[in-house]
Amino acid sequence: xxxxxxxxxxxxxxxxxxxxxxxxxxxxxxxxxxxxxxxxxxxxxxxxxxxxxxxxxxxxxxxxxxxxxxxxxxxxxxxxxxxxxxxxxxxxxxxxxxxx
Length: 100
Prior knowledge:
single chain, mainly beta, Jelly Rolls, 5-stranded antiparallel sheet, 3-stranded antiparallel sheet, 1 helix
């Protein structure tokens, strides 16, 4: 079987990749070619903090019943809160922490 980039995208369960750091944070990367239809409304099981936005121009974050805002202004995502990301330019690289 020939494994192509399209095949890999289809097999990916999430629209991002994630790498855990030894300090308990993780790096979540949304690639430039992510399909906007994959960036859906959802809720998380745990509180999350956005420690730092390493890359990403024009990416937006939206909580339910709020207008989208620049992702650089979001520091905390409470568990159970409906939210989504809106695609910007280039890739988005976030450093995050999950509070269990």
